[in-house]
Specification:
With 371 residues, the protein is α/β, with parallel strands linked by helices. The protein has one domain: TIM Barrel. Helix content is 33%, strand content 15%. The protein contains twelve helices and twelve strands. The chain has an eight-stranded parallel beta barrel, surrounded by six helices. Strands 1-2 form a two-stranded antiparallel ribbon. Strand 1 and strand 2 form a beta hairpin. It is globular, with a radius of gyration of 19 Å.
């Protein structure tokens, strides 16, 4: 048995936790495919996510799914702010489960990085970049502070009332996620979106209880976690994705992430995924596994807590993934772009790592492929 294909259980506050058939997770990846612009997932999302469940992943995450209309990155993102969206997610979840995978949803609010053109070839070819104006379907964005750090139209600074309303939106979306049958929620606190904007001094210039000190800048994230955990059943896993580093002096650093991860663990978060950057220009390293050290730092900070920590970012080769796990750098791996190229990445990785074909996590209908 390889480490990558060793079963693992993710911790929850009550009950046995969530058993996964392996440690390969499909990372959340935007599809920009809700052409009706109503946030309702459809056949594309079933096919995209379902094929990765067929292809052997242990946990399949949806794309960043907005908790409110103004929280969408683009007008073609999925959402979970109403019951029609919940009802459309339910059969997708059921199919993922039918293939032996767990179903996770990444809940998100883009903050100042909302209302942008979809990042698809047609939009790029037309020259449509940056903020989508209201006359084309865009909207005024909300953020902790008015800033141009993202290179987009300036957002409106959120009032305390709007902050509290957004926290209710997170909780309402979590309740619907439970009703749709999801096993895991991952809170999107990375890539320069709203929670990350509150965390980072680069984007948060507030002088009230939600800005300034570390304690104040992390307040919004703590309140979101607490509100979601209050409605998310205790036997289900709550996760979070961090940008472990802004890669900028004076920004959010890995020491901050490790400190806050320990606080989040105490609040009932059991799964942690470590990405980086997203606020302003990228100043970090590049190359295979360039973010793995961030996962290792959080794993060390959470040692003994039972938390499940995944690494993400240019992890493409099965041997590379196995090495990360065998050497204890992370507990699991999140596969993104490699899974866009190959939906059966997990099943092929099992073959390449010598897993017996009777133990391969591929769909049984495909046994004749040999694996």
């Amino acid at each position: 048995m390889t480490r990558l294909f060793e079963p693992v259980t993710l911790p929850a506050p009550a009950g046995p936790g969530l058993a996964l058939r392996n440690r390969a997770t499909l990372a959340p990846m935007c599809q920009y495919s809700v052409t009706a612009r109503d946030g309702v997932p459809h056949a594309w999302h079933l096919t995209h996510l379902g094929s990765r469940a067929v292809g052997g992943f242990g946990l399949v995450y949806t794309e960043a799914t907005a908790i409110s209309p103004e929280g969408r990155i683009s007008d073609q993102d999925t959402g979970l702010w109403n019951d029609a969206q919940r009802d459309a997610w339910a059969p997708i979840v059921d199919f993922i489960h039918s293939q032996g995978a767990a179903a996770g949803i990444q809940l998100a609010h883009a903050g100042a990085k909302a209302s942008t053109y979809p990042w698809l070839p047609d939009a790029a070819a037309s020259g449509a970049r940056g903020t989508m104006p209201p006359e084309e379907g865009g909207w005024r964005t909300l953020a902790p502070s008015v800033t141009n750090v993202h290179g987009l139209d300036a957002p409106a600074e959120m009032t305390v009332e709007q902050i509290r309303a957004s926290i209710r939106d997170w909780a309402d979306a979590a309740r619907r996620a439970d009703e749709a049958g999801f096993d895991v929620i991952q809170l999107h606190a990375a890539h320069g979106y709203l929670i990350h904007q509150f965390l980072s001094p680069l984007a948060n210039h507030r002088t009230d209880a939600y800005g300034g000190s570390y304690e104040n800048r992390t307040r919004y994230a703590r309140e979101v976690i607490t509100a979601v955990r209050a409605v998310w059943p205790e036997h289900k896993v709550l996760g979070i994705r961090f940008s472990g580093e802004d890669w900028v002096e004076g920004g959010w650093r890995i020491a901050d992430t490790a400190r806050f991860a320990a606080e989040a663990r105490d609040l009932g978060v059991g799964a942690f995924d470590l990405s980086s950057a997203g606020i302003g220009a990228f100043h970090g390293p590049t190359g295979p596994g360039y973010q793995v050290a961030l996962a290792t730092a959080v794993k060390e900070a959470l040692a003994g807590s039972g938390a499940f920590v995944t690494a993400v970012g240019m992890i493409t080769d099965p041997a590379q993934a196995e090495h990360i796990l065998v050497t204890g750098q992370a507990d699991g791996v999140s596969i993104g772009r490699a899974a866009l190229l190959e939906p059966y990445w997990a099943a092929l990785a099992a073959r390449d790592l010598g897993v017996d074909r009777d133990e391969n996590p591929r769909a049984p209908q495909y046994w004749r492929a040999g694996w």
